[in-house]
Amino acid sequence: MIDFSKLISSRIGVAATQVAATIALLNENATIPFITRYRKERTGSLDEVQISQIADEYHRFLEIDDRKATILKTVEEQGKLTTELRQRIEQCWDATELEDIYLPYKPHRKTRADVAREHGLEPLAQAIIEQKEPLAKLCSKFLIQNSKLTKDEALQGARDIMAEWISQDERARNDIRREFTYTAMITTKVVKGKESDPEAQKYKDYFAVSEPLKRISSHRLLAIRRAESEGYIRVDISPDSEKALDKLARHYLKSNNDTTYQVELAMEDSYKRLLKPAIETEFAALSKEKADTEAIRVFADNLRQLLLESPLGQKRVLAIDPGFRTGCKVVVLSAQGDLLHHTVVFLNTKQATTTLQSLIHQYQIEAIAIGNGTASRESEQMAKFAVDSLQLTNKPHIFVVSENGASVYSASKIAREEFPNEDVTVRGAVSIGRRLMDPLAELVKIDPKSIGVGQYQHDVNQTRLGESLQQTVESVVNCVGVDVNTASKHILTYISGLGPVLAQNIVNYRSEHGAFANRKALMKVPKMGAKTFEQAAGFLRVTNSNNLLDNSAVHPESYPIVEQMAKDLHCSVADLMQHPELRKRIDLQRYVTDTVGIPTLTDILHELEKPSRDPRTQLEEFQFDESVHTVDDLKVGMVLPGIITNIANFGAFCDVGVHKDGLIHISEMTNRRISNPNEVVSLHQHVRVRVIDIDRTRGRIQLSLKQ
């Protein structure tokens, strides 16, 4: 197998030895979370991002290697594979360069140049492009051989052949690429008759765009492409054509005679008809890919923040899915998230207050979760009134919960399996309540693309988006870890090394045999082999195990190290975990071996200090301004509490309780210059914002974090 480590090392700036070790682990089917956490000695403590980069580059080079095999076979079948050409192909690891090398041999539909070749015009084209003999002499010589064509037809055919040669010349293609890189402009023009279309007005800002391609932001490019796909605008990407032709002229115009003029005509035709359209398509794809990459990164960052949102924990919850016409669906959940009761109440009725108070008393409700959709503020007021009227020492806290994707979950196969006898409204309310208790455990049941924390998610490459979001969910689930005795099959699916089949097997085994007593018991699960156990065990917790390390991120392979530490200090593992003064006496150097180094030993020590620590922060209550309920209540200059609901490259969206999110542009986040909104805000962060503009016609609210 080809060693890609040096190639990848030069691209991402990681030592070749580290790359080689990572590739070896990937080829052993080790997962990225497992490599990151438990194989630091082998990789030199590479982080998750670096390991992901190596994995991506490795797969890219494997694809290029496969493509090279196809190209070599095709050219060889044509009988045109020379030793020099084979060597060039085999040594090439740039996808664009590889396709340029292959272009002259690539099967294609019949072209104008092919027709000219059939007429025997290739010798004439070759003579003209050399620009050594007078044109009249060449034409006379050729027309004697081929009396079927007129002089003009012969010259046109020769120019067609020369145009194709130029378009397939790697030098020419690279010259035009460089010109696109530095001078290409992206311009848009509204399709005639569409400017007055009401549906087109959302793209009004893109009806007449003209800006350098290299400077256009990802969100603007994706918006332009969406407007184009919907038929509202036409898009063109063009470099400085005069400069482009000047570069071509340096290669092909070798003299100043009548044959040179024919070459110049062929060159201009090649640029306009072949080169420019081909490179434009290439750059359109490259710019789209770049915009996709940025949009996917933003989506993944937002998803990570959402999945790591603070959990309330195991509390008895009353959840409300707000609604005006059909009422508010109310469900009661146990501390374990089981559905105990459901009903419907209507806003602004005595029945609503009485029902809510009765349920709070009967089920000893500890928290109330309210979806943030339509009628959310009204439902919050209803719940607050019911709670305030109660004579309780410990009144339940009220939380507004994002309900993005709840409707997708409620109609899904997963929801039908969980609640086969309940309708979609009940399932949706349950999802809202469970999101408050443990956002991660609930959100893994929903396709990440439906959660609504990105922009243009339907416009980017869906395969790449899906892979990135899947990797993000896996990363977060393994970072947090799960209790193997309470986890659903859906969250277990994302644990390193498991997947859907083993996740279901774990749940089935648990149902049949009861709770797992310890991590070792996992080996009794059907299809749980030693390799899979190695990958998964460190991320699975057993809270009531007789081995305290089973409820930590210490991997079972490292238990003997901890036991030796305890033995050397003449204490138990429990003592080691409970007493900081004992841990301070540990000399990590004593436990270094050929396979275990300081990075792993340091992780073990940190885990002993705080076993099974949850990286998620504590949940905080939030309350909107009581005087603001609709956009009409807003006034410029108001300072209001808000919640960050979404983050994009150009800013963040903030809910201030008026059923319409406002935009905090990146320039309004801080007085210093920033390139990324995440430097200042995070998803679902509680903030105080100032209203700086209200466009009631377009329904837009502009906010500022600058006070």
What can you see in these coordinates?
It is globular, with a radius of gyration of 33 Å. 49% of the residues lie in helices and 11% in strands. It folds into five domains: 5-105, RuvA domain 2-like (Arc Repressor Mutant, subunit A), CATH 1.10.10.650; 143-298, Tex N-terminal region-like; 317-437, Nucleotidyltransferase, domain 5 (2-Layer Sandwich), CATH 3.30.420; 500-609, DNA polymerase, domain 1 (Orthogonal Bundle); 631-704, Nucleic acid-binding proteins (OB fold (Dihydrolipoamide Acetyltransferase, E2P), Beta Barrel). By secondary structure, the chain is of the alpha/beta class. The longest helix has 50 residues, at 258-307. A five-stranded mixed sheet has the order 6-5-4-7-8, with helices on both faces.
List the helices and strands and how they pair.
Elements lengths: L4 H8 L3 H12 L4 H7 L1 H4 L4 H30 L5 H9 L3 H8 L9 H7 L3 H9 L4 H11 L5 H18 L1 H14 L1 E6 L19 E3 L5 H12 L3 E6 L2 H12 L5 H50 L9 E5 L6 E6 L5 E7 L4 H14 L3 E5 L4 H13 L8 E5 L4 H5 L2 H6 L5 H14 L1 H5 L18 H19 L1 E2 L5 H4 L7 H14 L16 H7 L3 E2 L17 H10 L4 H6 L1 H5 L13 H12 L29 E10 L2 E5 L6 E4 L20 E10 L4 E5 L3
Parallel strand pairs: 4-7, 7-8, 9-10, 13-15
Antiparallel strand pairs: 1-2, 1-3, 4-5, 5-6, 11-12, 11-14, 12-13, 14-15
Helix pairs in contact: 1-2, 2-5, 8-11, 9-11, 11-15, 12-14, 12-15, 13-15, 14-15, 15-22, 16-17
